[in-house]
Specification:
alpha/beta; Rossmann fold; four-stranded parallel beta sheet; 6 helices; about 10% strand
Amino acid sequence: MYLLDTDFIIASRFPQESAYRLAKTLAKEIYSTNDFLITELVLMEVATVISHKYSQIQAIQAVQTLQEAGRTILQLEADDWKNTWNFFNRQQKQKTSVVDCSNIVLAHKLNAKVVSFDHFYEQFGVAVDY
């Protein structure tokens, strides 16, 4: 099981991204497994980042593509929110992302790996090897 992170999704869509080639290679492998999820928080972050970096139209198109692909968008349950905030509150580094913390909590819960180029996930044992 894979949880897709924002940077991976964006890198796999935009050739301007530095990780584009690697993301496309990983995407081909991961999408073929049909064993991946996107959280509602990641979906919102994808829209926000694309809107900021590229355009509002591309942000809308990206979210629609992800939704239309028939992928289940994982919604956080009450315990997931609680565990995410508890995990976030234990972090000491500035610029810690709540979305990343939620991915870690859910990766542990679902025994999943997070597909991301963010090294934050490595220290918690949930990063996908690439």
